[in-house]
Amino acid sequence: MLVIMGTQDLDASLQSLVDEDEIKYKVMQQLNTVVGRSVEQLSNVQNLVAELTVARDQLQQTLRFTKTEAPDKISRAVATAEAALEKEKVLVKECEYLKVQVEAHAKKMAPLLDDFGQGVRQVRQLERVRQYQEFVSSIHELSREMESAVHTGAEGRAMVGYSKLLAATTATLHTRCTHLRTYTTHTLLHWNRVFIHTFTSEFDSVLKSIKWPFTSGSETVHQTPASPESLQRLCTLTQYLLQLVLPDELASEVGEVDPPTPSTPGGAASGLLCDFQQPLLPIHLLLRPLQVRFLFHFSGNRATNSRENPEWYFTQVLKWISAHETFLTTRIQPVLDRCNHEHVNAKVEFMRGLVRVVMVKLASDLPHLQYDDDLFSATVQETLNFERELSLTHGYPASQPSPLAVLTRPPTFPRWIHVERKFAVEVMDEVVSGVDAWSEGEGGEAAHCGQQLLLLLQGITDRYKRLPQPGHRLQFLELQLDLIDDFRVRVLQVMKSERRDPLASHYPAILNTVHRIAATLHDWADLPFFVEMGYYQECFRGIQEQTKAAVAGRDAPEPASAVTTTSTPASPDDPSAFTLTAHDLAYIPSSPLPPDQLARQDAFESLNVNAVLPTSSQLAEVTGSVFDEAIRLYEHIEQDMIRTLANYVFTEVRARSQPYRRDKWFHNATQLMPHAGPVELSPSLCPLLEVLARHLHALRDALAPPLFIQLWKIVADTLDKYVYEEVILETRFSDAGGAQFKFDMTRGLFPIFGEFTQKPENFFRLVKECVVLLTLPWPAVVLLRDTFHMWRHEKESFSLVVSPVKALAEHGITRLTPDQADTVLNIRIYQHS
């Protein structure tokens, strides 16, 4: 009933909101739209009535649902809610009753709990003591069983007991019973040492029986130098030793036993060994005889310990790797896989152990070679060759410690850069000042010194491209760019001295060299290695600018808090994420170095620490290349030299064109040859053509094809303008003179360039179109001149005729403007006018 009354009130309120005038206005608007002004459209009223009737029925049905069904549903919802509220009150009363009952029962049972509680706690404590004693007894029993198994030689049973002891010790790592944890740990450590000592001794004996190490070459491995029983025993001992390896969580608790090593290096080599993980015990035992032999031969006063011959120990280590890789792959690796060490590569572990002793040896030798450039550079080269052989031939991963780490340490790397620069400059001085430095190569090849420069740059790239840190690679890249620019300066000096007579000097060879260097740098710029270097170069510049600004802010009177940072990139490991804050500046010591040099050093160090391998999307965002500036400078020299050669050729041709320019083109040749056209070239043109052909052929043989193509096009364009301006526009042509001029051009000048292109006339468009106008029939000339006249003087009627541009195009003339074409027509002598 309340719902019905509410609905009636809602209808009344809605009725009060209705504006009858507005409704009438909308009805009239709708009728006007349907009927319009035509009486014929009155029939549309019936359709409108039908549509409104359907709409009314739908509204009535909706209102009927609201007045009948909707109140029923609302009433049912209200009744359900009231029932739920009543049920809630009942449940609350039941909960309060149960709470009173529980409190009363607890109060009643409290004295009983006080009587029995102490006894229950004692029982539980005794139960824990019993379990504690049983656990200790089980540890003791395991120890007794393992001791009995060791005395009787039952190795398998002893290792089963050790596995149980290891599981029990692992279970006590997180217990609060510190004494129990200490007891089990010490017990495990004791048996670990016992088994390691026992199996290590037998392992060494078996190695001797199979004649390990295989120092005679890889053939020994394939000939099976030991009996199958010895090899099987070696695999069994390897498995036992792998089982003795303590888990990481337990090793951190008790400290894993490190077997004695042949040497404990210190000094300069101590920092290098931080990157080396201790190899698995079987691999370490396999390495120990080789480490002893290495120290025997390459330390102390032995004749083989020669700093002048570092290749001796590099070669020896490579031989050991080759001799043992088959044995490691076929015998040791399967055992590792069976013992859940499939993630360990036996060959890589073996190589890493040998690399360790090599790095110790190298680090101890290099300080003694700092002041002998020849020995130092030889050692560096041998180290690079050794690392390349390890990686490419034996598959040594780049993620493992590398001998290159010794070369990139602070005492050694600056010396390496210095020696590299010194030798490179010496080589450049030698090749540039040599007798055959600028000797011409065959087929337009670069001169000898240019080829040597490219070989020098390629050698430097091969030496530093495998360095792990991008900051070190960037310093070598800067060295290369300095050498390229130094050579450019030398080229400019030699070029200026050879410019007087370019065809009779080394000028073409110099041009070929410049072109070859620019083309090679273009090719190198697209290589993935140099694209990656471009990314690191951009990061380096950003870090350098930030550091320079930060250092300048620290030294300025303003507070250091004024230093701001740049926006942080998405990845915190990105080199460009390096920023300096005022807090960071407090840890930068004052340095006597200028701010630029300090920022440079800091940027290199930041790149080496923070750099990660860029993604493909980051490489795609790199703008330009590392050689852009060098390429731009070399191409500028190339274009300047090409223009110089073209100007020289043109100057020689112009000097021999004076007789041809003085020829009379307005004579009436029909008196001499009434029925024939020209049959030979003008005699005054022959010297011009002769020197032009001779110089172009000489340059074609001397220059690289791309250079010569640019050259002859420049010469052709210059000659085209010269003949047009200095010959055609400076004289008058009769019909015979125009025919002779056409013969000279089409049979004399154009064929010289026909050897370089199929349509040479396309490169002499001014001359070709002038020839067309000079030999155009009289009726066509009259039409063209009338068109030009109307175009200038009768603008109103000009729209009724063809435009001068279209009129010229009908004769194939598109280069000359109407004014230029009219000028050419005006220099003709018209005998029919």
Describe the structure.
The protein has 833 residues and is mainly α. It has 31 helices and no strands. The radius of gyration is 49 Å and the shape is flat. Mean pLDDT is 82; it is low at 1-8, 217-222, 255-266, 557-573, 575-590 and 668-675.
Average of per-residue pLDDT values: 82
Assembly context of the chains: single chain
Number of strands: 0
Low-confidence stretches: 1-8, 217-222, 255-266, 557-573, 575-590, 668-675
Question: How large is the count of helical segments?
Answer: 31
Could you list some keywords that capture this structure?
833 residues, 31 helices, disordered N terminus
Short synopsis of the structure:
The protein is mainly α and 833 residues long. The chain has 31 helices and no strands.
